[in-house]
Amino acid sequence: MSDYRDRIIQIIADQAMLDPSELKLDMSPQDIGIDSLGLVESIFAIEEEFDISVPFNANEPEQSDFDISSLGAIVAAVEKLVAEKA
Amino acid sequence: MNAKKTKGEKPAKSARKPGKVKGKMKSATKAARTMLGRVIMGRHANGMRRVAITGMGTINALGRDVPSTLEAMREGRCGIGPLDFRDVDRLMVRIGGQVRDWEPETYFNRQQIVLYDKFTQFTLLAAREAVEQSGLVFEGELGLRSGVVLGTAAGGMNTWDENYRTVYEEGKNRVHPFVVPRLMNNAATSHVSLEYGLLGPSFTVATACASSNHAMGMAFNMVRSGAATVMLTGGSEAMLCFGGVKAWEGLRVMSKDACRPFSATRNGMVQGEGAGVFIFEDWEHAAARGADILAEVVGFSMSADAQDIVMPSAIGAQRTITGAMQDAHMRPEEVGYINAHGTGTAANDKTECAAVAHAFGHHADQLMISSTKSMHGHLIGGTGAVELLACIMALRDGVIAPTIGYEEPDPECALDVVPNEAREARVGAVLSNAFAFGGLNAVLALRKV
C-alpha cells in the first residue's frame, strides 16, 4: 500500500514542481499549490498510472465520490478504486 | 419568412456624400441629439454607418429554422438529449444538443455532400434562411461590396474524426481527395461566398467559445466603417462526434445529466451543434430598399484576460461588457437583457455574474440575464450566433428566453436569470456575452429598431 502512496506523491509532486519530501499526507491540493486545472491533470496521471477510472467532476469536486480533501484521502481513494478493480 | 422584396442593389444614394450627412444632422431632433451623439439617420455623428440586421437563419437542437427555434425558446423547451453517433458507448458523457435525424441528402446533392462537412452543411442552411429573409440578391456592385465572416472553433471535426478512423483504426493508406477542403476552418465561409457570389472581405475567426461573437463584431465594424455594404456573419460548430466529445470529456467540466446555468445544482456544460447566420447591412442601404430591419447592432468590444488558459476572469469580462456599452454610447440603465455566456460550469457562471454586477452596479438587479445554452447546449464556436436570436427576440417580440433547468438559487449568481419560464418584457437594448477559453472575450450590443 505504501507503494501506492509513494507513486501518488510522486505524481502530485511532479505536478506541483516540488520535491516529494516536501509533501505531507495531511496537505490539501491547495496547500501543495495545485489549482483546479492541476488537479484535473493529476487525476488523469493517476488514472494512467493505476489503470483506473476516477469519478471526478471539476464543477463539484467536493461532491464526487473521490475524496480529494487531502493527499492522504487521495491515496486512500485510489487504493479503494484499485481494490474494486481487482 | 419574408418574400424577396427587391432585386439587387439600388443605385448609390446621394446620401453617401459627406455634405448630405451634415445636412441631415442639422435636422436631427433634439431628442436624437441628446442620445450621446447618436443620430436617427443612417450615419452616426462621426460619419460611421449604422448597422441593420435584415436577415437571420439557424439550425440547432431546438429547430431547423428561426421560427421553430424561437418558439422552443419561448416555451422553454430543452433540445438536449442522448447523443446518437458511432462509439457513443465508449463515452462517459452521453448527452448533447444534437440536431436529430440529420440527413444531409434532404438538403444537398451527392457532389455537395462530398465537399461539405457537417459544419458547412449547417452554415449553408442557416445562410439560405437569412438571405431569403433579407431579400438581397448579390449582383454587380453589391456582390463586390459584400463578404462573409464566420466563427467556428473546430471546423470540420467530423471529417478529421472519420478520416483518422480510416487511417489509424482501419489501417487504410488512402483517404478521399477532398479531406482538406472539407475540414478546413474556412470551408463554411468559402462555400457561403461561392453560393451567393460574395466577392468582398471574407474570412473565418477561431476563438473557441467566442468565435461567433468575434466574427459578428468584425462584420459589424466592417459595415460600420464602410469597408463592406453587407456582411453575412455568425458561425457554426459540429463537434458532436466521438473525438469531439472525448476531447471535452478529458477536461472534466461536462455534465452527464443537464445544463443548469446559474443554479446552485449546476454541474457542468453540455455541448451542442448547429449554426446561426445573420445579414448585417448598411442601414442606409437597407432603408433605401425598404428592408424589414430586425434590430440594430450598435456596439462591440473584445479583450484578452492574459491570466489563465481556461479559468475565466471577472475583470476581463467586466471590461468587455463595459467596453461594448461605451462603443454603443449606451448607458448601463438602458440595458434590459443580457444573453449570458452562462455555460453551467461552476467557474463561468459565478465569474460572469460578478462581472455583470460590477459593470452595472445597482442596475444589475434591474436587468434580466439568461443562458439559452440550457436549451440548445453550448455550440462552442457557433454559440454566440444562435444566442443572438434570443437577443433579437427580446428586442423585437418582447419575449425574454429563459434559463431552463434552474433548481436552486446560488448566492454567487444572485441576478434575475429568468428561471425556467420565458417572460414578456419590453427592452430597448441588449448585450450578448461570450467569454472563451484562452481568456478571449467578445460582447455585442444591440438596440431595438
TrEMBL record, chain A:
Mention any Pfam family matching this sequence.
Answer: PP-binding
| Highest taxon of the lineage | Bacteria
Look up keyword DNA damage and say if it applies: no
Keyword annotations from UniProtKB, A to Z? Phosphopantetheine, Phosphoprotein
- InterPro entries for the chain: ACP-like_sf, PP-bd_ACP, Ppantetheine_attach_site
| Domain named Carrier: residues | 2-82
- What name goes with this protein? Acyl carrier protein
Organism (species): Paracoccus halophilus
From TrEMBL, chain B:
Sequence ranges of Basic residues compositional bias: 13-27
Q: Which Gene3D superfamilies match?
A: 3.40.47.10
Q: List the GO terms this entry assigns under cellular component, sorted alphabetically.
A: plasma membrane
Q: Where's it found, cell-wise?
A: Cell inner membrane
Ketosynthase family 3 (KS3) domain boundaries: 48-448
**GO molecular-function term, one example from the UniProt record:** 3-oxoacyl-[acyl-carrier-protein] synthase activity
GO BP, one annotated term: fatty acid biosynthetic process
- Where is the region Disordered? 1-28
UniProt keywords, alphabetically? Cell inner membrane, Cell membrane, Membrane, Nodulation, Transferase, Transmembrane, Transmembrane helix
Chief localisation class: membrane
The record's section on SMART domains has: PKS_KS
Q: Does the keyword NADP apply?
A: no
State where composition is biased (Basic and acidic residues).
1-12
* Ranges in a coiled coil: none
Q: Which PANTHER family match?
A: 3-OXOACYL-[ACYL-CARRIER-PROTEIN] SYNTHASE, POLYKETIDE SYNTHASE-RELATED
Q: Which family does it belong to?
A: Belongs to the thiolase-like superfamily. Beta-ketoacyl-ACP synthases family.
Q: What does this protein do?
A: Proposed to synthesize NOD factor fatty acyl chain. Involved in the synthesis of a highly unsaturated fatty acid moiety, which forms part of a lipo-oligosaccharide that is responsible for host specificity.
Q: What is this protein called?
A: Nodulation protein E
